[in-house]
Amino acid sequence: MTLLAFAVFGYLLGSVPFAVIVSRAFRLADPRSFGSGNPGATNVLRSGNKLAAALTLVGDAAKGWLAMFIAAKVGAGDTAIGVAGLAAFLGHVFPFTLGFKGGKGVATALGVLLGFSGVLAGIVAGFWLLVVGLSRYSSLAALVAAATAPLTAQLLLGKLEITLVVTVMCAVLIYRHKSNIRKLLDGSEGRIGGRK
Question: Which tens digits make up the pLDDT trace of 163-193?
């Protein structure tokens, strides 16, 4: 029952659509109406408003971290904290507020990793930055970071329950990038800073 309560709480928090909220606040087009149609920070960046994109990134990451922080503050155990974080991630990817069609989960996943360990989040973010720097493909960077995160979590923290949460989260994240994978393979994926 306790785990269910934290799962519901995390999911509801994760379902807050920061990309849409921030875009409306800045009087920008709905991010679901242009670019990839994805309500996330990368697509908000395509509007040309870097501040709106940054606020979306912070908001989406904060959802994952905050769900775990609050769970820890009320005395939840490690399993319940992990469930709260995973549920926040799933709420972002499949939000009831947007008809279960949400973002791809990169920023929220980073927030969950931060909830587990700042070092873990830093290492995985480092992989993302390295691949972006070399390729300018945000999607490729997200895929590489997701692929390396479970092993990094296990080597760094050595807790099976954390590794399991990270593995499930990253598997969903990779699945949500299936269209990007096809575009990467056929050479049609857009680069950061490339032509719109």
Answer: 999 999 999 999 999 999 999 999 999 887 7
Closest CA relative to residue 153, chosen from 144, 163, 145: 163
- The total number of residues shown for the chain amounts to 196
What average pLDDT does the structure give for the chain?
94
Q: Which two tokens stand for residue 61?
A: 């990451």
Contact 31, 38 (CB under 8 A): yes
Q: What is the pTM of this model?
A: 0.94
